[in-house]
């Protein structure tokens, strides 16, 4: 009798241990596959060739690098327009944004700047393969997403304008 109680206890201990291990594996898989932001801003900025400008950098740093620019007030933030550089840069004004008071949008028609080696003037079709190598998936025409990072290519056969922005997962349902 004593041996069978001990065996039952060991059996249930093993079953419980296996259940906890499986629950941990399941939780890890769910986290891995449901995590929306697999790419970090550092990873993204390492691929950004934009004359020193990076997503998430402060407005103060932007002004140090490029000057004041033309200030255009907007909803959820403002834009700094740099006509001589053919570029507009968005600054987040929503305190819930992960990049609050930092650069969240870059828009350019300047061939000098690039993301993942993609420049204004490049073939739109050839660009998709470049972006796909870095995990970007097309959302709809000309929009490519990887977690919270979005690249929009405007132009029919060749890229005329590149827009890059940080689409904060916590603000996607917010309307300004």
TrEMBL record:
Question: What's the domain of life for this entry?
Answer: Bacteria
Q: Name it.
A: Uncharacterized protein
Q: Which organism is it from?
A: Paenibacillus baekrokdamisoli
Question: What are the top taxonomic ranks of the organism?
Answer: Bacteria, Bacillati, Bacillota, Bacilli, Bacillales
């Amino acid at each position: 009798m004593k041996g069978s109680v001990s065996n039952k206890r060991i059996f249930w201990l093993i079953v419980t241990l296996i259940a906890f291990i499986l629950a941990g594996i399941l939780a890890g898989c769910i986290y891995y596959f449901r995590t929306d932001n697999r790419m970090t801003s550092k990873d993204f900025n390492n691929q950004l060739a934009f004359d020193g400008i990076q997503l998430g950098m402060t407005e103060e740093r932007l002004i140090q690098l490029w000057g004041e620019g033309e200030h255009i007030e907007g909803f959820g933030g403002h834009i700094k327009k740099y006509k001589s550089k053919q570029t507009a840069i968005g600054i987040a004004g929503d305190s819930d944004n992960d990049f609050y008071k930092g650069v969240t949008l870059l828009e350019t028609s300047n061939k000098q700047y690039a993301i993942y080696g993609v420049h204004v003037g490049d073939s739109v079709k050839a660009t998709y393969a470049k972006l796909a190598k870095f995990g970007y998936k097309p959302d709809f025409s000309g929009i490519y997403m990887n977690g919270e990072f979005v690249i929009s290519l405007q132009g029919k056969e060749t890229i005329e304008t590149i827009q890059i922005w940080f689409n904060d997962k916590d603000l996607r349902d917010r309307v300004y």
